[in-house]
């Protein structure tokens, strides 16, 4: 299975070879904590016109520990442009296709008018964990928020109350390779905060880490928000089993062998094993409404 790494060109050896610095995260096999690593490699680039500072995408079937030399690289996709805005000396990354990038700037913590877009999309970006950008951003025009496949530090779920017109909220990770590297977003706080978003119609929380909210009774209040059907996932990576998720069933039941469709990615996955921790792991054939497994 090919893994994808992003890197920056730091020097050009000759017309065909470049030195590239990779920045990636992986999950520590013993402590199960994400560790950030940098590694310098050499790569051929006959097909591409590279310059210093260019972002590149590198694919290989070899794991991070065996990275020495790659022959297959491509320049980073420029269809998704990136702009930066200053928020009280903090930086907010807004990414998306040109038609969805808002005009204007956000400065001094004050929201600007965003006439072209009501969508804030932050996907596949490495975010500096020291900057809690979500606390600073509060544009009232934002209706859609997509936060997927990132690695920023724990954020409080109450931050979303700053978006009163929010209709759709996507959190989590849908890329197994990034999960194995420890790249996924982390949250804490109460899910009840999301009930204050009276216009929220679509909520997708999958393959993420919610440290304190995953055990709270949200089922009794979920009917207050229309059209929400979701599973809350915590996750870890096991060398033996692969990706393991902890779930709470809101409605219906989850059965071994059942196929699950993620609304964010539209990908379909099959449940291979089911069980509960009481406190040891016990395998079961199905999980019902209200159960945690």
TrEMBL record:
Q: Which terms in the Gene Ontology molecular function aspect does this entry carry? A: structural constituent of ribosome
**GO biological-process terms attached to the record:** translation
Keywords assigned by UniProt? Ribonucleoprotein, Ribosomal protein
Q: Which InterPro entries match?
A: NA-bd_OB-fold, Ribosomal_uS17, Transl_B-barrel_sf
Keyword Manganese appears in the UniProt entry: no
UniProt keyword Ribosomal protein present: yes
Q: Which Gene3D superfamilies match?
A: Nucleic acid-binding proteins (2.40.50.140), Translation factors (2.40.30.10)
Alphabetical list of SUPFAM superfamilies matching this protein: Nucleic acid-binding proteins (SSF50249), Translation proteins (SSF50447)
One cellular component GO annotation, for this chain's record? cytosolic small ribosomal subunit
Which PANTHER family does the UniProt record give?
Answer: 40S RIBOSOMAL PROTEIN S11 FAMILY MEMBER, 40S RIBOSOMAL PROTEIN S11-RELATED
Family to which the UniProt record says this protein belongs: Belongs to the universal ribosomal protein uS17 family.
Q: What name goes with this protein?
A: 4751_t:CDS:1
- Species this chain originates from: Racocetra fulgida
According to the entry, what is the taxonomic lineage of the organism?
Eukaryota, Fungi, Fungi incertae sedis, Mucoromycota, Glomeromycotina
